[in-house]
Amino acid sequence: MASSWAASDRLGVLRRYRDYLPITEATPLVCMGEGETPLVRSQRLEARLGCGPLYFKLESCNPTGSFKDRGMVVAVAKAIEEGQKAVLCASTGNTSAAAAAYAAHCDLRAHVLVPKGNIAQGKLAQAVAHGAQVIAVDGNFDQALSLARAITDKHPIALVNSLNPYRLEGQKTAAFEIIDHLGDTPNYLFIPVGNAGNITAYWRGFVEYQQRGKATKRPRMMGFQAEGAAPIVLGRPVEKPVTVATAIRIGNPASWKGAEAARDASGGVIEAVSDEEILTAYRLLAQEEGIFGEPASAASLAGLFKMSRQGLDFGNSTIVCIITGSGLKDPETAMAIPTEVREVPVELTAVEKAIGVA
Ligand code: F0G
Fold it and tell me: pLDDT digit string (tens) for 158-180?
């Protein structure tokens, strides 16, 4: 029964972590090669920060370029199992890209609600390319999510936002992979926070793996919101969230309580980083590590720099920063980095001169 879904040479999240997921005999083992993402050791920033081993988990290497694929594969498989024919989500872009791709792969219809004018071009391109119906809501993500809930409460369409419990089940597998790679839990996990599902899912994964005897300890969860969209830090919803990191431009996170529980149970923090700090980290990541994450992803590294500046000693600590999505999704932000593109005629000497070897 599962054979038609098992064409990939990679196991994917459903088969690799089958024993940890709500899978039944009737669940199709959908796989587009999600998961098994690289854990890359820092080459330069670790020394600059004076911290213990620093790793970047490249969730940007998932099939649609973000961590969303881990949860989407579970949500879509369960929707098929339940006989659904269509999926719907509200999204700042990555969830909609994943929903559109997995729906296309599984011959489901996808409807995606995105905040008008506030979604990175690459993400919109993905939804369009995969044939999803794109609906631009003249409001922000939080308003789009309210509409998504209302529609799916009323009509037989599967909601594939992280309110769908299968999403977080899939996303927790990233924590398993970190432990599988390192042999044990890191001391700190740095992660961007938007709708707060991912930090909730990671915490669940770390706790579960320890309970099953796969790890000896749990990490401190260090979550970072953008300063203009920091409801959990402020302790109240933000009506008009603003930040360059459009993925986390969220004022009333659905998993608010889960994020607070992860923070409190782990002895961690949820703090804010400014757009300037995010963009500095974004460039450092790209230019000193060779890792092109999208701006929201850089909030994790910006948070590490901030905590380090505030005097937290990471000297002997193993740290993992989650790079949640690919920089390719947001070319506008990359192209805003000041740079000079030299134009030359088709002449050897002109190129030599431009390079400085004339
Ligand atoms: N990083 C990226 C690249 C994201 O796309 C998101 C969320 C987050 C971090 C934050 O994760 O919401 O679980 O706290 N993107 C959602 C979306 C909201 O619609 O694609 P979170």
Answer: 999 999 999 999 999 999 999 99
